[in-house]
């Protein structure tokens, strides 16, 4: 609560670097602070008065100061932060740039600043940030030209310039903010603490954010789980591509992390991810009006049949349903609409519908218990009084969410303004309106619903395998160490590592035909690329021929590879899937599941989760791949043992968490048998951190 109090509700603010010179940041910040309900103290030794306020030579001279806004050259910031600590300042908002984002010298300055702050217990927002605002108390310690409206949307952003754009858009859309926080370089205060502060703030109902990289990925998930259980959170994460990640690093010195990790993490902790500014704006506008929106069945009202069809198509495409109107609703529509109207969803009130007709039809749809929300579409036809229709839509007193869409140009501008002023989410196209509803429908779908199970495993055996490999300076483990999986209860196909044809014949006899031969080499990652696997060997004669052929192939396609032997393995049939472990710099261990076999890297039908996971999340991973119908029983086929795979995912998760040296691991393929018959790992490869 102390950070929330000092950051968003300070009783006094010093503006260090205030200036009467227009066009300077110090002038813009102080001008914006003139509406602050608390005390404002300009600080600049060059002036006795700035903008009608007494100016102090140093922060040490002000009467009292809970927050300081620092707008001075970077080289002077560490000393001024030290003075802030001596003056009792709780939070310093460092707008100044020239720190980590500028290179090594800037990084040194940032560390000096932090050292001074930590010595006195001063918290730092920034540096290289836009500032902070709380319109509810007139606090606008930013240099934006737009004074935000007060409202219930909290915004945090790692980009100050982008935040300026968001604030300008929100002003035009009549969207009000409870708090605006620019993170900048996140030298001290980061997104996790700001999220926690916004969770505590009763005046914040929705959180929007722009993020380039997480300082503490697992911490973000932990805080976000708590926040999203109380209020919706929507983040736009930049740096999705290699080029974007590189730009992120040069922008704020952050590590972007892998995009699949953020995708997984956001879903698991309930953060709704926007993929563009337009999506962030559109979803934010909807949630600002209806923060607790739950929607599946949509009613569509229109004065143009074509718009209704577009909205209906969009509903289906985005996972929504066109509501089935009740008989009583249809009868009510017949009483208020002309005979030529369409009384079924989408409801077409016809092109000459006036404001009263719109209001009557909209009220009927809102009263239907089978309708969760209504999309109200208007085309500015010659007979349409758009402004009157807008006022009628806004006047319908319904608890049901109403989303308006005025499709046109100059003739719809005033109507859109009327609707936005009255708090009705308004869009220029039906697809964007429905898309926003569809995205909000997915809120909370990916939440972790159960705690990970701790299985009884043979960790000691795994530690022995890993430590022995590291002693030998081996960084990879192949299928010859598949017993590593067995130690964690992951079923494997019976197999024996052999050194010559005689050992191979004895192994096959013991295992039982049919068998598979696989070359074992630390220099061969993908056996199929060197034709290093032969399947379906049914007797000793075939095995002798296959063994000779296998060694010849490896000699031809990988002549420099060290061959440690040939694995003889029981032939297993079923659906092939892949399970895996990888590591992300922000979120730690990731789990992968998908369609397996030799085409996994081509088809890319895989999903990721941040480890650890419980049963419900493991099952969701399986259901989320496109090929899931191949496992669930397509066209009358038998189902495959999905529950067994889900347990293996959980056991793999425990393996990842308990053995940090494993940085990558692939079980490809794991063969899934019919329902009730389990699954079997038949190949395996792991990479260790030395």
From TrEMBL:
Superkingdom: Archaea
Matching SUPFAM superfamilies: Glutathione synthetase ATP-binding domain-like (SSF56059), NAD(P)-binding Rossmann-fold domains (SSF51735), Succinyl-CoA synthetase domains (SSF52210)
Any one Gene Ontology molecular-function term assigned to this protein's record: ATP binding
One Pfam family, short name: ATP-grasp_5
EC number: 6.2.1.13
Amino-acid biosynthesis found in the keyword field: no
UniProt cross-references to PROSITE patterns, sorted A to Z: ATP_GRASP (PS50975)
Keyword annotations: ATP-binding, Ligase, Nucleotide-binding
Catalytic activity: acetate + ATP + CoA = acetyl-CoA + ADP + phosphate
Protein name (Swiss-Prot/TrEMBL): acetate--CoA ligase (ADP-forming)
Protein's organism: Methermicoccus shengliensis
